[in-house]
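Input record (one chain):
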Amino acid sequence: MYRPRFFRGAGVALFAVSLALPVTSFAQEGASALAIEEIVVTATRRAESLQDVPISISAVTAEDIAATGSLDLKDLSSQVPNFVFAESVNQGLSFISIRGIYTRTEPSALGFDSSVGVYVDGVFHSRQFNANPNMGDIERVEVLRGPQGTLFGRNTISGAINITSKKPTTEDFFGDLSVDAGNRNLVHARGSVNIPLLENTLAVKLFAESYEIDGYADNVTTGSDKLGGKEKTSARFQVRYTPSAQTTIDLSVSAYDSDSDDYFFEHVDGPAADDRAYTTTNDTENTSKIELSNASVTIEHEFENGYTLTSTTALLGDELTFGADVEATPNPVVGITSFVGTEQFSQELRIASPTDRSYDFVAGFYYDDDEGAVNDVIFLGSGFPFPPVRNSSIARGGNTLDRRSWAGFLHANLDLSDRMVLFGGLRYTDEIKEQQTHPSSCANPITCIILGNPALTETTDAPVDVVLEEWTWTAGMRYQITDDVMIYGSIGTGVKSGAFNNTPDPIADFAANNLITDHEEVTSYELGMKSSWLDNRLVLNFALFRMDYDDLQVRLGCVNCGPGGIPLRFLSNAGTAEGEGFELELVALPTEGLRFTAGIGYMDTVYDKLSDVEDQRRGGFFDAGGKTLPLAPEWTVNVSAQHTRALMGGTLTSRLDLSYVDERFSDGSFHNHPDDVLPSQALLGARVGYRPASDSWGISLWAKNLTDDDSEVYRAFGAAFLPFGTNRAQYQQPRTYGVTLDFSF
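The corresponding structure, as predicted from the sequence alone:
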């Protein structure tokens, strides 16, 4: 495979800049009132124009969310280059890959962290099943690519997602309501109201949302046609109090509840396959339920000398319950129900200097405490291969985890001249994870023996803690070639915490050197350009990157190697991995009524060293060095065209969205087997809306997956509890369409 080298790409970037420079004179000749609206982001923990921030960022605004009908972060991923949010077997799994770096994280693996940090209003959400929030009442979503170890901290080793909600305002009383209705009995209602209580001092805002849609896959064993169906509700209450012009206090309390009939997977081959897409053969239904509750207070005060102090305090409570037919066949073999619950407290203090001098900085302190518990029940049905334990169960006491972390950080800019700025940052992180394993119980003692469940008589502490004491840093320079063209280069590092395996016997696993994994590290190199042309009717941004990973964490295992033939899954370190590529994003206003956007991402991400990987199809183990990482397509492309025109005293808006993702290897495909390739996919969305001159109401007709693409979006091979191996798959959600009515007052 051809792999473009980093510094060769740097030459391409500089060449692109030289080609673009002559456009300036053309823009000056044809000045126009048309201009692309400035986007303000908080990627550097202070409000700045997107075009001034030397980071590869995609910003999705509230207007973009509404125009595409995006419901959650997974929907938005199609608008961001080199960002993949893949399908999974239930809503508790978040398969997120940024710049080709991805590691599967099971919700029950409490001690294991994602590679992507998700922040909502400055609050870190540590669990992957709270990483896909609804997009209602959101002002902006920023996707920061590459490690963000200085300002956002650990576990942002491949990137960070910074979500900002719309805040109350003391200026006016207003509100909005929208209702979607569509096929599959879709009903989606959401609304908000802003209420000023004290002039220029106090306001509250209420938001509520309800979403329900029927399934699109059938269970031919149970007769259910609900697979893929969801019911979701969410609400947020916000208060903004401004006791003075220098002080703002924001309180936010929110709740989220989601129930789904999971489209788990279907067998593509083997006895349980029926050669029909969108059909499963589970003997029981797979369901999942998520309940989230969040409360946060942010206080911001600007002192007379221009320094600003910000305090963010948050308390999160997250719960996930799911049930699954593990082998997904008509014959009852193994089923599981599982519960995961966590509570997280966090506190951040930041001081930001004024920006009207030759230097500025942001410095701060961060602390969080996370407690979690997991327990489950395994059912062995009449089809279990060992008759003495059929129709029995084991209640596993599970694990509890306590994580405590603190960090101090500093990020600064130094003006070397009117056009050249040197920037850098440093962060120290100290974290400790402690895990306990609780006793399990079996109605049939043989079941515990066959499944290798240790007869723990009391709660057992892991004999060692997972400790992280690491520095991360960033250094770079940006140069303003013209008022509208900025180039930058940076080197940065990131770290992801070490992890506990989800163990039933910490003493034995520690003796076998299989209890914990080391933390992983990355060094990232980036060159980029932020530019605007033609009197700001064209914005073109470009970033070229290379990332070198050490001790990349991976989830390995053996399908039938565990006690009693159960799957054995464990976390390990891959040695080294590397990735390189680029992102290009463009926004253009060719005419007064036409807006065009495009994003192109390229990446080439491989394991340098990864040994002792099981070959499930042929048996034995192999070295995966040189293999491509899962969920790392070479190319991702997103294009949109939106046209607005006057009609009958109002405005008619039409929009087309195309997203393309190249073929990629599925989750868990370390050996890059041809049967694990997910095909390339192009999805088309469309929306046509009309809004009268009064602007108090509007109506839109829309469709997603307009061509009714049915590509495979999930692939896996397994033989758990079966004497044979099968390929398993999910297919793209079919076309959905409907109408939206919205009102404002």
